[in-house]
Amino acid sequence: MPKAVKSPAMNDTATLQNGQDAAPTPLDGAAKRYFVKTYGCQMNVYDSQRMSDALTEDGYSETTDVQDADLILLNTCHIREKAAEKVYSAVGRLRELKADRASAGKETMIAIAGCVAQAEGAEILRRAPAVDLVIGPQTYHRLPDAVRRARAGEKVVETDYAVEDKFDHLPSPKASVTRSRGVTAFLTVQEGCDKFCTFCVVPYTRGSEVSRPVSRIVAEAERLAASGVRELTLLGQNVNAWHGVGEDGREWGLGALLFRLAEIPGIARLRYTTSHPRDMDDALIAAHRDLPALMPYLHLPVQSGSDLILKRMNRRHTAADYLRLVERIRSARPDIAMSGDFIVGFPGETDADFDATMKLIDDVGYAAAYSFKYSPRPGTPGADMDDHVPEAVKDERLQRLQALLSRQQADFVTSLTGRDVDVLIDKPGRQAGQIVGRSPWLQPVIIDEKAAEIGDIVTVRIMRTGYNTLYSTPD
Ligand code: SAH
Ligand code: SF4
Ligand code: F3S
After folding, report:
1. Which of 255, 282, 312, 390 has its CA 20 to 30 A from that of 171?
2. What's the pLDDT score for residue 15?
3. Atom 3 of ligand 3 has which residue's CA nearest to it?
4. Is the distance from the beta carbon of residue 333 to the nearest atom of ligand 1 less than 6 Å?
5. Which of 83-87, 318-322, 335-339, 459-463 has the weakest average pLDDT?
6. Residue 62 to residue 104: CA distance in whole angstroms
């Protein structure tokens, strides 16, 4: 009987000393199982899927029970506070599991992937000797080989930025063959960042901006569509900086790419995330006006409403630039819902700077948002700035900001009552007789199961709303 799904964080007494003398049984020839836990952004979710594909091709199968895994893969995030510490404590807990399995004659490889792996590299092996393998986001195509070397006894660190494009070396997504991905899927079109916002680690963990070629993206989208995917979310740290030579031999931006992907039979909905305000060009704004498949929902982080802080953050736009941009997008697509990211308590942020952020939020009106206390990241310019804001001030500002954003979100959700909304059905409901879909603005919509099947897009009237859920069913 499979046990309940567990996270790697289970039990915190660690007993195994590295180099214990129980000789684990080699796995070659036997069924090999991997367990993967993903932290961080959607790109990590996508990367975990691609690593799973690579392992599947190498003869592994996935398990949701960490105790049963011959390979435990933690795909980590480094964006905010204590990311590395969390990984070390998760590994501390896994050490005991590794020891238990070793005494039963079973070998367990622990692999750290993702942005903490890239940032910490070999330091992880020094501080957490139970780890066998450290692999950064640009080298995932080498994962099966790295696992083999680790199993032969090598302590492996793969964090060099590969010269070759990792995407060319990863196996094709086998959505239809290996694991069911449902009707929505992520597709990475761009990776890395050259913007160097002064608070952010991403340019250091993901490297410089790389756009995947059109032919690869189209081929992957076609495969996903053939496996039943109806909604694609294009991913990139700066997705709207994507560019490439199109099928017509001309230079395409994201707008042109979206038009091309909308032609693929089966693909009914497109989204993209995350965008930088400086890369919203006219063609992309026009796509919001002219391409019905492009959902009227845009995540466009601004971080702060104060020009002084924006400058210190190296965002390279002002609050007024952002507001003008939102106005242009809204005149192209009046029903567009905006979402954003905000950081409070960046070094030097005064009450007046914070008030400017609150004012910007008031002016824009967000349907959803993510907000964070500034967290100094070692190695970024922000961490070395003067005038760090006291934690209590950050707390207080975050509370006020989140209260305003929650009110705006609640207003948006309740404004949908009585409206007819297109819904992509994506899963069975928790209650019998119900089925769940997604609105154009990403809220779950609860529908009578007789009304539609998974993969359908249906128009339903919203009868009532919950905190972030829409109901087309009566009470
Ligand atoms: N590439 C995207 C998002 C990157 S990270 C962009 O440019 O917008 C996602 C969000 O995490 C950021 O938008 C920011 O709001 C937040 N973030 C990044 N670094 C942070 C830090 N050091 N402290 C607090 N929040 C941070
Ligand atoms: Fe980080 Fe700025 Fe790049 Fe976004 S644009 S990934 S916030 S450096
Ligand atoms: Fe985290 Fe790396 Fe994504 S730091 S947010 S997993 S790019």
Report:
1. 255
2. 28
3. 41
4. no
5. 83-87
6. 21
